[in-house]
């Protein structure tokens, strides 16, 4: 048993006090990085820091030879444990057991939280006044689309609200139309009964019965006209609703096309960033060329980081 085994040391301050420890010195003189710290665009599966001569620390990379390293190698990087918890504290206290949640480790993927987090800001801590401590709500938290145009999202939301209002108005007109039809049928039955009683008493003219019959006929005519007007309004509203629905579907399709184009552009920029990174590490290049390649790589990286921050 080595006495150094249960102890953690800094890599640059590892002591070798006994001759028996020399056989293990090569084992203690390096450390591996975490899996998330490797360069996935170079097919790097491990990175080690190695101590040489007790003074120098040299990085050592373990890279799998692949022909096309610009594309993410999914077989080398299996899904890792997610940063989101599998269970809440209440579930854990209740005795539940759920499998570990995992997620892909592809660079550039936006992590979308499945839990709604609430944040309250004390106005006194932010200087107070001016509404500066109000948490973002509404469309700012509903983006999640990684590069989606906020104006386009807001326009789609307003169209959806308009469609909901038109659908509610159409339902109201349908109910009114059904009530009018029931009332017309009732008036028709009353008119038929009055006509039958009038024909049975044709020998003696009754002014009151004739007046009631005329009133029923006039009311029936008015209800029919009102029913026809309501049906016309309902047909017009349904046609507008159908056209608006078609416009919404077309807008959704355009939105999906923009999302696909954004993902393709993002993938191409990631490939360009990886290519520039490898080009800057080639031997035989002068300092100016390496500096220029590094600047181009940083440019693409800043754009990708900015788009990820907007998506979150």
Automatic annotation (TrEMBL):
SMART domains: DUF1900 (SM01167). Residues 117-174 are annotated as: Disordered. InterPro entries: Coronin (IPR015505). Pfam families: WD40_4. Residues 126-148 have a biased composition (Gly residues). It comes from the Eukaryota. This is Coronin. It comes from Cystoisospora suis. The lineage of its organism: Eukaryota, Sar, Alveolata, Apicomplexa, Conoidasida.
